[in-house]
Design goal:
The chain contains five helices and eleven strands, in the order αββαββααββαβββββ. The chain is elongated, with a radius of gyration of 32 Å. By secondary structure, the chain is of the alpha+beta class. It has two domains: 16-64; 82-284, Na, k-atpase alpha subunit (Immunoglobulin-like, Sandwich), CATH 2.60.40.1660. β1 (22-23) and β2 (28-29) form a beta hairpin. The chain has helices at 10-21, 34-64, 100-114, 119-125, 204-207; strands spanning 22-23, 28-29, 82-85, 92-96, 173-178, 192-198, 210-213, 218-219, 239-244, 253-260, 276-284. A five-stranded mixed beta sheet has the order 4-11-10-6-8. It comes from Alligator sinensis (Chinese alligator). Pfam families: Na_K-ATPase. It is a single-pass type II membrane protein.
């Protein structure tokens, strides 16, 4: 016949817990003496100290192989990406001409982006380079010697250089820029330009006329190559402004802009941003 286990009172349970936490007879804290606790703490201190030192040593060795001025591997950057400003989450520029609140944030984005392009800032920090050729600057035996950047003045963008950027009268401007790639020579010594059009041929008439600034959407070779932000400190990225002169109102327009250059592909279906960018623009009128 099974013997029933004696049920302990609440006081007995509490007494056992107190004895477990601190036993005055054996001077044990939670079942261990002070010496035992000290040895355990010492073990974990040494163990985790070793792991920390090993991690720091590994990171230090890794960082010795990294050049702070240039990425070690650039094999995936054969074709630079393209982006627009104002930059919205879905690359969707939609506004109502008569409602300032719907386009004022686009103006603020462009103001902020173009602030370093002010003519006065460019004159103070960058050089007036010779156009039409690459601005190569060899180190001449001094590794990572600071490079001079060429001026890109805001006034080159014509009516897309400021004020409301055309949003106030329904002729909006969108800036197109090519992402920076270190030591990349676009164009293979030939003209580089931006070309924009409706994504579908049947939408060309509704999209209307486009104006590009600088003229013909040209990106001068003098802004290349780019040497990296630590060496090319004041580098100003060239941009092309696209102004939509007579968009059909209250209609979604799907636009694609791509870089036209001898060594830049813009037809890779696996990468929608390689050498091109697609966005939607819509101008609503009451």
């Amino acid at each position: 016949m099974a013997v029933e286990k004696e049920k302990k009172s609440c006081g007995q349970v509490m007494a056992e817990w107190r004895q477990f936490i601190w036993d005055p007879r054996t001077h044990q804290f939670m079942g261990r003496t002070g010496t035992s606790w000290a040895l355990i703490l010492l073990f974990y201190l040494v163990f985790y100290g070793f792991l920390t030192a090993l991690f720091i040593l590994t990171m230090w060795v890794l960082l010795q192989t990294v050049d702070p001025h240039m990425p070690k591997y650039q094999d995936r950057l054969a074709t630079p990406g393209v982006m627009i400003r104002p930059k919205t989450e879905a690359l969707d520029v939609t506004f109502n001409v008569s409602n300032t609140e719907t386009w004022d944030h686009y103006v603020k984005m462009l103001d902020e982006f173009l602030e370093p392009y002010n003519d006065s800032v460019q004159a103070a920090t960058n050089a007036a380079c010779r156009p039409g050729r690459y601005n190569e600057q060899p180190d001449d035996g001094v590794p990572n010697y600071p490079k001079r950047a060429c001026q890109f003045n805001r006034t080159q963008l014509g009516p897309c250089a400021g004020r409301t950027y055309g949003y106030g009268d329904g002729r909006p401007c969108v800036l197109v820029k090519m992402n920076r790639v270190i030591n990349f020579f676009p164009g293979d010594n030939k003209t580089v330009s931006v070309v924009c059009a409706a994504k579908k041929e049947e939408d060309v008439a509704q999209l209307g006329d486009l104006a590009l600034y600088p003229a013909n959407g040209t990106i001068d070779l003098m802004y290349f190559p780019y040497y990296g932000k630590k060496v090319h400190v004041n580098y100003t990225q060239p941009v092309v402004a696209v102004q939509f002169l007579n968009l059909t109102a209250n209609v979604d327009h799907n636009v694609e802009c791509h870089i036209r250059a001898a060594n830049i592909r813009a037809d890779d279906e696996r990468d929608k941003f390689a050498g091109r960018v697609a966005f939607k623009i819509r101008v609503n009128r009451n």
